[in-house]
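Study this fold:
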Amino acid sequence: MSKCPVMTTSAGVPVADNENSLSAGPRGPLLMEDYQLFERMAHFNRERVPERVVHAKGAGAYGQFEVTGDISRFTRAHLFSAIGNRCDLFLRFSHVAGEQGYADTVRDPRGFAIKFYTEEGNWDLVGNNTPVFFIRDPLKFQDFIHSQKRRPDTGLRDNTMQWDWWSLSPESLHQVTILFSDRGIPASYRNMNGYGSHTFSVWNDQGERYWVKWHLKTMQGIKTLRAEDAARIAGEDPDFHRRDLHAAIARGEFPRWQVQIQIMPEKDAETYGIHPFDLTKVWPHKDYPPQEVGILTLNRNPENFFAEVEQAAFEPGNLPPGLGVSPDKVLQARLLSYADTHRYRIGINYASLPVNQPHCPVHTYHRDGHMRFDGNSGGAVNYEPNSFSGPVQAPEYRAPPLKISGDADRYDHRQGNEDYQQAGDLFRLMNADQKAQLIGNIVGAMREVPKSPEFDS
């Protein structure tokens, strides 16, 4: 076997560790000095023109969110200040790995991205239809997606690539178990749950922070497709899910989801037995029971698919005061990566497009750039500080400080992690039919995967 070449950056600098991002302590946030991570994300975000690199095919609709449960003691966000508060929203469903022309009923995680137009600015909850994901370190996202896309030689998707990567990445087992279970192919977008997946945070006027998990439970009931039915539908109607969502709303059958939240006091994270910021793990409901927050309803179809669905741009960093992030490493990378992708794919002024524009006043010093179409703030002052009544900072919106510790290093994200327990727990919760479907789906996907590591055609 020939010796492998040393991996380098684009500048030819040898890469010492391609498994772990640079963070402040093993659980700490990522560091801006991790040029290797940023180079990989920036390059990856520009690999496809012009469709999204991931989540390329989807469907979307407008709707409304109404607060039905009181969490005002946990967050100062005005949206949650009183039961009965409402805001408009836009929700985009999508495939993760499939391209624009992909059949809707292919086995693949589904994106579940929501833009809440609150009076304090947009809140983007950008998640999936699963509570976990395949990776816990963002440095591996590019490799993961490459393994799920198409071979560089044939342009075909290949089960060998997928299972090769999964077999060498034990942290993916929990998500793989969900993907190949009966929930791996939803019957429709209306019949699946949504999850923020990451650990986020909320904070109140007293400066108290809580870690949270967001859940959206379908009120239409969970319905799924067996593999054989999904294959048949893919041949008959590749746009089955997109068509179903549009038709249901047009008929007045408005789909709804109950929004729930799990809440963990900040201090609990230090001693909780499960790494609370690990994207491959869930918090058991017996430890942190979900509580109802509100009802989300979709009630209006877009008038122009490209202008509204394709140009919708979601950012996990869109967080009104009282809503925040966590040291989840994958989430921290997404804060940079999503906005960077939009600037490349749509243009620097993407936030001014109608579907992305907040429903509240916007005051920034951003100027110029390609396709500036909103007057470019006229002759208003374009620097800060200034003596001409330009927008100023508001310290009262400052989030509480986050205590961190640890040496800056590339920590092995697999060391000390148990990657089999929660996947096993999920399997043991399944009934006999669900277990049989899971095993059959895995066998079908692995049937042509070779035992040897040769990359056969």
